[in-house]
Amino acid sequence: MNGNYEENQPARGEIDALAAPLVIEFGTAWCGHCMAAQPLIASVLRDYPALRHLKVEDGPGRPLGRSFRVKLWPTLIFMAHGREVARLVRPGDAGEIRAALRQIAGA
User: For residue 70, what are the CA distances in angstroms to 2, 15, 48, 58, 74?
Assistant: First the structure.
């Protein structure tokens, strides 16, 4: 699991061009909801070590978050073949994260 939110964001076109499964996590290091979700996210991602996890620092004027219409943090976007398959906003349960990951793990 990636521990830091990346300030440098890939372009949306780069994300859409990825064939491999991907989890994008939008949030910030100072967000209380984001901090609370980290243990849940980490516990589930441990079971998927080969899955790419991209943590993106979000905020006003950040183009990647706006392109996904992110409004609350953390927002997890589960992608396969360049398309959004599932989305979780402020996940509070490892089971819901695991269920979303299963949708892309075999993609």
Answer: 20, 15, 24, 8, 9
pTM of the entire structure?
A: 0.94
Q: E strands, 1-107, where?
A: 22-27, 52-57, 75-80, 83-89
Question: Is 93's pLDDT higher than 70?
Answer: yes
Q: How many structural domains are present in the chain?
A: 1
Place of tokens 């943590």: 55
The string of pLDDT tens digits covering residues 10-61 is 999 999 999 999 999 999 999 999 999 999 999 999 999 999 999 999 999 8
Task: Decide if 40 is inside a domain.
Answer: yes
Domain at 22, CATH number? 3.40.30.10
- Give the count of beta carbons closer than 10 Å to the beta carbon of residue 91: 20
1 belongs to a structural domain: no
DSSP strand pairing (22-27 vs 75-80): antiparallel
Which residue range forms the structural domain that includes residue 65? 12-105
